Amino acid sequence: MRTLLILAWILSLPSPAAAEKKPASGRTARLEARIRQAIRRAPGTVSFFAKNLDTGQSYGVRADERVRTASTIKLPILAAVFGEVEAGRATWTEELTVRKDDMVSGSGVVRELSGGIKLPLKDLAHLMIVVSDNTATNVILDRIPGDTVNRWMDQIGLPETRVLRKILGDGNNLQPAPGGLSQAGRIEENKRFGIGVSTPREMVTLLEKLEGGQIIEPAACREMIGILKRQQYKEFWHQLLERVNGLPAVESATLLGGLPPIRPLDANDTQIEGFVPQPGGPIQNIDYYQMAGDRFLETTGARLIEGRLFDRRDGESAPPVVVVNQTMARTFWPGQSPLGKRLRPGFQGPWRTVIGVVGDIKNAGIEKPASMELFFPIRQAQGGNRNGLLFLKIRSGSGSVISSIRREIASIDPSLPIAQVRSFEEVLGVAQARPRFLTMLLSLFSGVALALAAVGIYGVLSYLVAQRTSEFGIRMAIGAGQSDVLWMVLRQGMVLGLAGVVAGAAGAALLTRFLRSFLYAVDALDPATFAGMAAVLTAVVLAACLLPARRATRVDPMTALRYE
pTM of the prediction? Predict the structure, then answer.
């Protein structure tokens, strides 16, 4: 039996309920009843169409209503790519350049690659479907524009299915890619549909024609179906984790949604059950969401403060759970355990129960304090996990395991590249680059200031010694020793120098509020730092005073008396 093809959209758009009326009985009637019940429970407005390819039976709700396609527009784009290749107007091996301006946030891995990289059209087409890659989609639309895709849709009898523009991303991390509007995308009425528009019936018709080999050559249709079957939102990551954790060189491995300490701010609205906002108090907005795989603690070294972290119990069908960090626990549940408390990401969907508390992790930079953070099990990722970071803890003495990991990935899906393989030391180096550069600049400027201070003290004391040459001669003529003159000059120079040190320390204490953002793991008024600064400056003053003082002890009394 061939596949029952179903496509549905859930949208928050008001529209009257209108299901297609077809005679139904037995199993079909029960199925329709279950569908109607699911539609009534849905939080938005549903447009739906289903067709059994063996019996020809179909059922729809607003099946001909034009709705947003979201990422399902990538299927018509894939069909057009195959069509252009079959027509000889494109080739699978031609390489397309991924410019920095093409990269957008959201699903996919191409945005993690270096700007200017070239990828074959076939690889980009696979990535567009297998990991729903937004950047790959935009690069393809530069080569095969939306108007070309729409002409292909006309040829196969889908006049309402239209690519409208390139994908702008989800608003996180990267700047939106500009342009890419098709003729249909310039129509004012269509702008509300985003990247594409279609109807449930037309999208099912596209799938039906694909199954029947009626879009292009049957062999090409079968290849397209093969690509669709390799879609990897969920199973890919679980298979990869199992295989990587089995490698001899790997002590443990986990998955992350974002890589600390160089993550951009998420700022996600989150409903906290029972929380009543107060003026001047915290708001229900969490700085960071983190997807976490099994073995998160062992791999990252995070500290479990209370409760437990995720494991195989927290699967897709299990009750939704979440873990919070210490900062969030102290903010919303001060003086009490957060275990068993509930929250809802985005103020929608099911409530999640807090099952654990972990120590704070710095996300925005090692020099900045930790913020509130929520951890979600990757097994419960809504819609599958589209992006992920494989985080490894390598056994001591093991060589490079990258080649082994590449083989494991290729064995699951050979079309997927590995992006940005880095050691955590390199990641920390990137996180520390700005503080290190600023520290280097401050050190350079302070070194120059210290040298100028030493030269200035030396110049002033040399001038004072030269002015008092006669005085020194008289003192030595009436019996003063060289040590007396040496001590007198040093004492006077040190009094001036120490007065400057005290004044400088007071000024530094007043200006520390401007330096707090440059400091890490040290207080702006750290006593040891101020003591060290005073000691260094005192040593510089002493060294600057010593040479003029020694010169003063060598003054010949007779020469000094004739100096004037």
Answer: 0.47
